[in-house]
Amino acid sequence: MIKQNCLFCNVANGSMDSATIFENSEFKVVLDPYPAAKGHTLIIPKEHIENIYELDTESASRLFALATHIAKVLKSIYNCDGLNILQNNGEAAGQTVFHFHMHLIPRYNNDNVKIKWETIKIEKEELDAIAKEIASRL
After folding, report:
1. Which residues are designated catalytic?
2. How many whole angstroms separate alpha carbon 20 and alpha carbon 36?
3. How confident is the model at residue 51 (pLDDT cuts 50, 70, 90)?
4. For labelling alongside 100, which of 12, 26, 72, 123 has CA 20 to 30 A away?
């Protein structure tokens, strides 16, 4: 399904111009027009999928296989020191376009890209309880 007023539906299905790197029946890969670094790439499903909670595991598998291939290509072209794979779900997590998309951001030592959070203190007993709760639902 394509959502008419969705920015990434329009990009993924060719209604809006983009710097396209790759395209198949399921995904479109484009350069981010507002990049954090040279080569900053977006992988966008052509079907409107709002977030990871709506993404089926088979599509996720193909998406991550594509991301792995693109990451290796970016590394070979830009000789980057690292690479962030970033994917936000929900406003609280920083999602601003509510169509699933994955960022691949080439990184360099001493670049100005900041993706950082402050850690919280969790005691071992609480960590174990959290792990047990999550594991019980898998």
Report:
1. 101
2. 17
3. very high
4. 72
